[in-house]
């Protein structure tokens, strides 16, 4: 019996001693950034799970450096490159849930040169409410790189035209429309009307919100309406049947290259659809109307941007003609992870091993998270009155080529600039597409007034009267019905100051076959220095090339 117990004890001791070695051989070696309570808890959780093998801790606090925490040595972040060679870690796990967004962004930027995969543990708010656990790590998101500190929403502005009211959202299945719907639901609307032309998008957002409603024990009635903003009777029916008081008009075609190739569809949906919704809102005597606009409406070089500016003109004119109704519009730049955004595109390209495609080395864009953009749209809309244009503070513009490299680095790879260079994933420049700018702007002129909210400004910009605008919109409708894209472009240049189309549309009659390939006229696209704005210049063979505007 004594021999048996001795052998059992020896086996147990041996297995306990060997467990860390086996654990280390089978698990990925990771470095934990943050040696405080969160970092030590994360180290213990990872050791217990066996998914990762913590090999050290890093902290910028001098009093912790050199000590042991959770059985691991605490190192200085000044020696990360040396540590990587010595400790052979392939991931860095950021365990600083209480750090500000700005501090977190600084840390993430400092890790880029290591070309190791960086992951982040949940924030304090997620841990406090129990929605996430310490060991639930996520990949670094672009918002971690922006370092943009959140601003607590103004409860009065958030509730003013939502709480206990009937709210309709057009384009409710889109990136912004769906987030507006989530926030309207959580603010206690009496009824939420989801108006969407895509059946699958409407199904998905309605199902998600019904689940959220049940989990949160919210009494809001959710109504899904499948329809198009071009259907005047359908829009009015939805507003009257559901006693709508507030409208957020988010329905629009927003993808610049696609709208550039589909002039008629872009003008029909964005311009004529907006006119229908605005007219219906006025006819049904709604209380509040908010247009979701875009920074591409400022000095537009694309069909999409020009149509968004015309949307603004329609709302401005209606607001002055119907002063009893609060009408406003909110203009902002790109939102992260939206449909058509470069961020999910880059992520997918990196996952496939590249190349990562960027249009131009100098192109920049503004970015904001979808939840923050939706919150600011709601708050700005509550400030609006007679056709006010509100502009959101988008922070600093981001160079897209830098963003691509950061995402490559933080995914654990090294970028290479050409096929022959060193690195893992190539960055390829494809050239600006028709209608694209090197940079976007938020104001037509430089003047903007502050508001009570630190991230919302009010712009003062020219507008047209109903008498001036209506005849042009009638001509626009006739041109769309007659399938005359050239006339649509001409009318856009009439309405939008400074807009010049980047291409001349060619439309084949439906009954006439396309010419044989041998008869096709080639379009020469000579190499040239890129410019901020692309403006068409005729060339000898009837094609177009891009040239700098004066």
Q: Mind explaining what this structure looks like?
A:
Helices cover 40% and strands 19% of the residues. The protein has 18 helices and 25 strands. The strands form 6 sheets. A 9-stranded mixed sheet has the order 10-9-8-11-12-13-18-23-22, with helices on both faces. Strands 3-4-2-1-5-6-7 form a 7-stranded mixed sheet. It has a 3-stranded parallel sheet with strand order 15-21-20. Helix 10 packs parallel to helix 12 and helix 13 crosses helix 18. The N terminus and C terminus are likely disordered.
Strand arrangement within the widest β-sheet reads 10-9-8-11-12-13-18-23-22
Main sheet makeup: 9 strands, mixed
Q: Work out the helix count.
A: 18
**Quaternary structure:** single chain
**How much of the polypeptide forms β-strand, as a percent range?**
15-25%
Sum this structure up briefly:
This protein has 550 residues and is an alpha/beta fold. It has 18 helices and 25 strands.
Note the topology:
Elements: H1 2-26, E1 28-33, H2 37-49, E2 52-58, E3 68-69, E4 72-75, H3 80-87, E5 91-94, H4 101-111, E6 117-120, H5 124-129, E7 138-139, H6 142-146, H7 155-159, E8 166-170, H8 175-186, E9 191-196, H9 199-216, E10 221-226, H10 232-241, E11 246-249, H11 256-261, H12 263-283, E12 288-292, H13 303-321, E13 326-331, E14 334-335, H14 342-351, E15 356-358, E16 364-365, E17 367-368, H15 370-383, E18 386-392, E19 398-399, H16 400-410, E20 415-416, E21 425-429, E22 448-450, E23 456-459, H17 466-481, H18 485-495, E24 534-538, E25 544-548
